[in-house]
Amino acid sequence: MEEKVLDIVELTKVFTIGSLLSRVRITAVDRVSFHVRPAEIFCLAGESGCGKSTTAKMIMGFEEPTSGTIIHNGKPSGRHEKVWLTQRTQAIFQDPFGTFNPLRTVDRYFFETLHNYKLVQSRAEAIDWIDRKLRSVGLSYEEFADKYPNEFSGGQLQRISIARALLTNPTLLIADEPVSMVDASLRMSIVNLFKQLCDELGVSVLYITHDLATAYYVSERIAIMFRGNIIEMGPVEQVLMEPKHPYTQLLRESIPEADPRKRWATKISLTELEQQEYLRTGCKFAGRCPRVMNKCLEQAPTDVLVDDTLVKCYLYA
Ligand SMILES: Nc1ncnc2c1ncn2[C@@H]1O[C@H](COP(=O)(O)OP(=O)(O)O)[C@@H](O)[C@H]1O
Ligand SMILES: [Mg+2]
């Protein structure tokens, strides 16, 4: 049987939003299934509001699934279990400045983690351990000790959050838009780092992004999401170079993306288009699809295997 560090089966999340009089139920994540193999970078991609973060939050235990199963290293996670707190799965967040309290030195987080997981016996051992992790992201203990978050650049701080995630020797890193708030000039070097960690330490990465360029560059397999559904999934070369789903074809041309800071503020209110598409019966993309057919409006297509790629589209049925 194929080895999997993470296996997601039919994961679903329904949100009820709006006031009492204008309630809507949207399926932000709709029977999503995928797996991540050992030492693999798997990418979950799609425009903002398609359900990527909700999927990540359920995997990390921040959000309770409406239904479906999440299996970490062969072990299904129980209800209310904070999966991200386990040693084997660690997360890296979008905003490195939000990860650390500005009034605490960053090294304290590192000592605390080692202490909490009882990974070292002495301070000297801890410093050595921390230095090794920092070196794997291109930094060192010396240049990091006793400093506050604002003494680092965004790029450095994101490297530091990656080093922190590595402290417990995880098998899987979950990185939700890890470079979208980092200077464009530094993005590639951070994305490269994931690739290096995967190759050298054998860590798997669930890389979540709206940026297909970095996705193409680092990942082996990719899933494209649209309004809660994975509409195409397969080897990155096939999906991005010979996209089959009309949405993937469109996405390759341009990715509509809101400013992440603005999105944060207006998170729960859906745009009209978003709501319309989420509430559609049939294929969620039908309203924008250049190749829409009558049956697309009536019933959602099921997955079809074309080459090594799964496609949710009647064009291939
Ligand atoms: N806590 C919540 N309550 C209600 N709706 C939510 C909540 N979190 C996210 N949503 C909605 O679910 C959809 C998917 O959001 P999200 O997973 O954040 O997408 P992405 O990360 O791809 O931008 C969006 O329409 C969003 O507004
Ligand atoms: Mg998101």
Number of helices: 12
Please tell me the total number of domains: 1
Describe the biggest sheet?
Answer: 8 strands, mixed
* Number of E-type strands: 12
Instruction: Tell me the strand percentage band.
Output: 15-25%
Order of helices and strands: EEEHEEEHHHHEHEHEEHHHHHEE
**Radius of gyration computed on alpha carbons:** 20 Å
Give a quick precis of the structure.
The protein has helices spanning 52-60, 96-99, 106-116, 123-136, 154-166, 184-201, 212-218, 236-241, 246-253, 260-265, 272-279, 294-298; strands at residues 6-17, 24-36, 41-45, 67-72, 75-76, 89-92, 172-176, 204-209, 221-226, 229-235, 303-306, 309-312.
Please provide a written account of the structure:
- By secondary structure, this protein is an alpha/beta fold.
- It is built from twelve helices and twelve strands.
- An eight-stranded mixed beta sheet has the order 6-7-8-3-9-10-12-11, with helices on both faces.
- Strand 9 (221-226) and strand 10 form a beta hairpin.
- It binds adenosine-5'-diphosphate and magnesium ion.
- Adenosine-5'-diphosphate binds next to strand 1 and helix 1.
